[in-house]
Amino acid sequence: MNSNTGVPSFRSLPRLLVTWFTMAALASSLVVAPAGDAADAENSIFQANQRLGRGVNLGNFLEVPRDQDWGVKIVPDHLATIKQAGFDSIRLPVKWSDYASKVQPYAIEPEFFSRVDRWLDRAEQEKLNVVLNIHHYDQLDTDPDQHVERFRAIWRQIAQRYQSRGPWLYFELDNEPHDKLSSKWNEVLLQGLAAVRESNPTRPVIIGPPNWNGIWALPQLRLPDDPNLIVTVHMYNPHNFTHQGASWSNPEVRSIKDLSWGSKEERAALDKEIQQAADWGKQHSRPIYLGEFGAYSSAPQDSRVRWTRAVVTAAERHQMSWAYWEFGAGFGLYDIQQSQWRQDLLNAVMP
Predict the structure, then answer these.
(1) Cα gap 197→191, rounded to integer Å
(2) Where would one find coiled-coil regions in this protein (predicted)?
């Protein structure tokens, strides 16, 4: 039994009842509006996406596993630096799963909630929009059937805690669903969304396709009839360029050195991929948020700058909001040790 709702555990119900409970919960949280109101809602979510504007991810920070330190020392004053540089938003990746109980009601530790609170408070002070997500919930990817109830409970707690925050706060259900979650994502996202809608009936919620939020996977995404959804995609192609020399890449990509980018054919391929996302958005009347893109520091710097500028130019041509990956680590726009922007990269994202 789920102690928060009084509804029997999903694992105790046949699949058809699971679907019924999920859809009933989602339907009860949505209001059927007249045609005019529906058009207003559509305009509103596109406007909400535009407010996200130009953003940057606070990566390698709150999404780091509990007992690890990836050496990225982001402090609250960095949000003022981000705002002063002209950014409209930040994306805040958070590994909530390391700070939530493994048994019902899957309570999130108060101390960790308070830690996130402080970042939201400072972002509001700096007038930065925030995309708050679940990041690196690895068990959900590898064993979704066993973790979907916990996923829903985590979102219920986040949504309830932040329901009074202003429209500057956006929720993103899950970063880069992959592995076994990919084939089940359309079912699982309904449950996360239903948990949010219990307390936040109209807040913008960001959802991406399965298979690592790849643009190519957009046709696999099935969304409910909720007018307050933004669709996110990630862009790291060509992968052997953007991830060359990265320690977590496969051995072949890890061994690449000095691979440049910027030929006519490469630029055309990039434009075509961004165009595919834009076309899907138009076809489905959904705004597009490019939630991650970046080229790792091992790539030649002049090519990194060219690639980054090309992605931003293409995204903004299609009225996409975006968030560069990331602020101050291996892809970073900002040199934390030197307390200064890498000006050529900053110029690439702020033309």
Answers:
(1) 10
(2) none
